[in-house]
Amino acid sequence: MIGSIKGKINFKTEKYIIVDTAGVGYKINISPDTLSKAKKIGEEISLWIHTHVREDAIDLYGFSDHQELEFFEMLINVSGIGPKGALTILGVASIETLRKAIGTGDISYLTKISGIGKKTAEKIVIELRDKVGKEKEGSSLQGELDAMEALKSLGYSQSEVREALKKIAPDLDTNKKIREALKVLGKSSS
């Protein structure tokens, strides 16, 4: 199995990159977070790899840090979550926020993810809650959801909002989250 790859980026899309290593181009599916860290075509990149073997294909999934790889592997061990679904989940929020959602059993946060229904969200919580650690019952992600909805109502896309919220401290109250996210969004548009 391939555990990591280091090479030059030959091609880049929103879902995968092709990395040239010793004359061989590897197609590597990547998370949105890793995509944002991926350099320009022709530059060197180093990725942690999960090799997914199926009957009809061998797919590579790349991550910029080992923590993201481990969380991805936890997600794909949940029945009903495949590698593409796990990448979608990782694209929604930071790993810390996802751990908090799972640890508190916040199914409403998980169902906001495209393709994740109530039953799948419940499965994720049941199967991963002990692995990510239980959070205090009073802890809630409602502020994160409120901030996300407020920013979307201002005309920002869901992906822009997610990226901005990943860059700010998760323990801020809703109003401060919105203000900080607007600063991040303002910098990225200028």
UniProtKB/TrEMBL annotation:
The keyword DNA damage applies. Signal peptide: none annotated. GO terms for biological process: DNA recombination; DNA repair. CDD domains: UBA_RuvA_C. The keyword Nucleotide-binding applies. Coiled coil: none annotated. Belongs to the RuvA family. The RuvA-RuvB-RuvC complex processes Holliday junction (HJ) DNA during genetic recombination and DNA repair, while the RuvA-RuvB complex plays an important role in the rescue of blocked DNA replication forks via replication fork reversal (RFR). RuvA specifically binds to HJ cruciform DNA, conferring on it an open structure. The RuvB hexamer acts as an ATP-dependent pump, pulling dsDNA into and through the RuvAB complex. HJ branch migration allows RuvC to scan DNA until it finds its consensus sequence, where it cleaves and resolves the cruciform DNA. Homotetramer. Forms an RuvA(8)-RuvB(12)-Holliday junction (HJ) complex. HJ DNA is sandwiched between 2 RuvA tetramers; dsDNA enters through RuvA and exits via RuvB. An RuvB hexamer assembles on each DNA strand where it exits the tetramer. Each RuvB hexamer is contacted by two RuvA subunits (via domain III) on 2 adjacent RuvB subunits; this complex drives branch migration. In the full resolvosome a probable DNA-RuvA(4)-RuvB(12)-RuvC(2) complex forms which resolves the HJ. This is Holliday junction branch migration complex subunit RuvA. The lineage of its organism: Bacteria, Candidatus Nomuraibacteriota.
